[in-house]
Write a sequence for this structure.
């Protein structure tokens, strides 16, 4: 994606017709935000994205109630070779929404939400009703951070995730654990050139059974801080660490 678009206002559109570069999809909500909130000037450049790497740019003009888009350009951003995902133990909804926002800004590809022995318990059917709201949070975070990819939220269990990825050599599974030996950043190179999956525990910590599961699945426990972090802080720190590894 061109660096020229980083000063351009971004808007999320759920569907972009990549087969018709002459159409510029722009819904009423985005139009209102463009005119009344951002107060964008005539002939200003704007960008729409669909969360899958597809974007269109155009110059917007207002002629009374009529809106005209000129100089429409379609582009496709490829995902980077290595990406990271977060396995988040469930917590209070307000904290969870902060996590969703921040890991999106940091480029998280998948956010797995799991019940943990010591976490706040939610029924997944209840959480599924939150998905439309969370999608808006992610879209806003993507627009702010100029990230053309929306993360995918997946409900599952730690067992399912471990079984699916533990033997895949393209993935490195890591658990942030404040009670293990602190990792030195000089040794962090061994985590590079992998897709990173970071497990984030609840504020009560992982149970003995969960620790045994991680050991059985050869999930590496690392400690990058001498303090015990809140779960939402640990998610942000973990996502930042993973982003560094995936981008280098």
């Amino acid at each position: 994606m061109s660096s020229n678009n980083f000063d351009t206002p971004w808007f999320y559109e759920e569907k972009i017709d990549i087969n018709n570069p002459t159409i510029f999809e722009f819904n009423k909500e985005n139009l209102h935000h463009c005119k009344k909130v951002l107060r964008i000037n005539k002939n200003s450049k704007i960008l729409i994205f669909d969360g899958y790497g597809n974007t269109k740019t155009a110059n917007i003009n207002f002629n009374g109630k009529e809106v005209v888009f000129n100089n429409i350009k379609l582009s496709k951003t490829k995902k980077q070779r290595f990406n990271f995902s977060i396995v988040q133990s469930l917590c209070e909804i307000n904290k969870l929404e902060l996590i969703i926002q921040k890991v999106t800004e940091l480029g998280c590809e998948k956010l797995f939400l799991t019940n943990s022995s010591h976490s706040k318990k939610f029924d997944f059917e209840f959480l599924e009703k939150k998905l439309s709201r969370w999608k808006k949070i992610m879209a806003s975070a993507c627009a702010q951070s100029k990230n053309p990819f929306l993360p995918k939220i997946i409900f599952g269990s730690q067992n399912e995730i471990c079984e699916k990825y533990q033997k895949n050599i393209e993935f490195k599974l890591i658990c942030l654990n404040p009670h293990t030996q602190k990792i030195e950043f000089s040794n962090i190179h061994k985590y590079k050139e992998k897709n990173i999956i970071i497990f984030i525990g609840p504020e009560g910590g992982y149970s003995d059974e969960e620790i045994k599961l991680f050991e059985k699945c050869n999930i590496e426990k690392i400690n990058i801080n001498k303090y015990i972090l809140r779960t939402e802080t640990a998610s942000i720190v973990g996502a930042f660490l993973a982003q560094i590894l995936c981008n280098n």
